[in-house]
Amino acid sequence: MNKLIVILLGCLATGWIAGLQADEQSAIATVESYGGQVLGIAKDVEGVRVLIPPKTFEGRVLTDADLEVLKEIPGIMELDIKNAGIGDAGVAHLSNLSSLERLHLEKTKITDAGLKHLTGLSNLVYLNLYGTEVSASGMDALKTLKKLKNLYLWQTKVSEDAAKSFQVAMEKSGNDALEINLGWEKELLSKARLAALKTQREALESSATEEPTELVVVEDPDFATHIMPILEANCVKCHGEEKQKSKLRLDSYAAVMEGTPDDKIVVAGDLIGSSLFQLITLPADDDDLMPPKNGPLSENEIAQIRNWIVKGAKAEAEVVVVEETKVASKESGVFGEFILPILKERCADCHGEDKQKAKLRLDSLAATLKGADGEAIVVSGKPDESSLYTRVILPADHDDRMPPKGDLLSKAQTDLIKLWITSGAE
User: Fold this and answer.
1) Separation between Cα atoms, residue 20 and residue 161, nearest integer Å
2) Alpha helix (H) ranges present in 289-364?
3) Which of 139, 316, 328, 376 has the fewest CB neighbours in a 10 Å radius?
4) Residue 27: which H helix or E strand, with range?
């Protein structure tokens, strides 16, 4: 009799598990019928990424009720439903997606009422509300999201002052890593990021008093000679033929330039846009630092990768001329490393030793901070009040645009100037 009961219980359990699997498979099929996709995150990550377009293949508009099926798909870590016509009732179906880390709601019809359905998503680190009707009144609902690091509020009803107040409130509750995007040129950097930049700057300045480190870079770097050896020694074990963490391979030039399905990790000439460079230059205690073990890379290795990206991220070089550079002694720090090269290249002809238009020199830190004829062009911590920054981001046809001739500064260059001013302009 007991044996029969065990057999019956086993059959019931097997049927229950099969039913769960059937529900999940049915839910995935439903999402795919919307024209959506359910994708794995990575080999070593148990979770999925769900993307659903605003319209089905047949042209039917996605509705709030369509999102109810998501509860049957376990382990949703990223959900992308941007541009969909869903509103607060649709967002209500997301309230139990406890694994969710990244949520794209940009240009949906969510309002402050819908934000209340997100309070239980304790693992959320990325939330995009760009182009929605949310306002400052609804922000309190997000204060429970203690892991939130990236919040996009561009073209919402949340003012800059309200966004700053929310960021401060999150800092007081223990989250000092939150950064808020309010537009192309407006980003509220986190307290943690600013502290890390200050630490990096102090490290650079203190190293100037020590014996200079000789960094050997080349005028015309190529991938095979200067970059591949670094990647083979530090990265290929996790990003090679046998293992591809985050769907990324770094064992060939083609693989590096292809990046991941979500990110082009190297953008020729653009350090800001190259996540490869961003990740290897994070503070040593940052969870996202690469490589995660035996890191960070040496100063020389970082210099080689930086030089290669800046010089065009080429596969091969025609001419290799060795040029020795040393850590600057006096004009060092963030200004000497990143800002002064931009000013010398684009501004010093009119604002240098030989010529000082508008009584302004931009060929040293002291001269730049002194400004023009007693008027400051840099206001520490306030890029929007610093004419050095505001004039280089003006449109090409604006009379006050700087430099007045030639190409505009690149996005990478203006971002560096903004970041330098925001972090203290030292």
Assistant:
1) 48
2) 299-310, 333-334, 340-346
3) 316
4) helix 2-33
Q: Identify whether 361 is part of a domain.
A: yes
Q: Cis bond leading into 74, ω under 30°? A: no
Residue type, 43: K
Beta carbons of 235 and 243 less than 8 angstroms apart: no
Cα distance between residue 85 and residue 392, in whole Å = 38
The answer on 47 and 184 residing in a single domain is: yes
How confident is the model over 168-209, as pLDDT tens digits? 999 999 999 898 988 765 778 888 877 776 666 666 556 545
Residue 79 domain-assigned? Answer: yes
CB 241 within 8 A of CB 341: no
Q: Are residues 152 and 221 in the same domain?
A: no
Rounded CA separation 266/394 (Å) = 27
| Residue in 248, 228, 234 with CA at minimum distance from that of residue 308 | 228
Neighbours of 1 (CB within 10 A): 5
Which tokens sit at 235? 């990265």
Amino acid 62 reads: L
Q: Quote the domain boundaries for residue 295.
A: 213-323
Residue 38 inside a domain? The answer is yes
Give this prediction's pTM: 0.51
User: Looking up tokens 């080349």, which residue turns up?
Assistant: 218
- For 91-133, how does the pLDDT look when each residue is reduced to its tens digit (9 = 90+)? 999 999 999 999 999 999 999 999 999 999 999 999 999 999 9
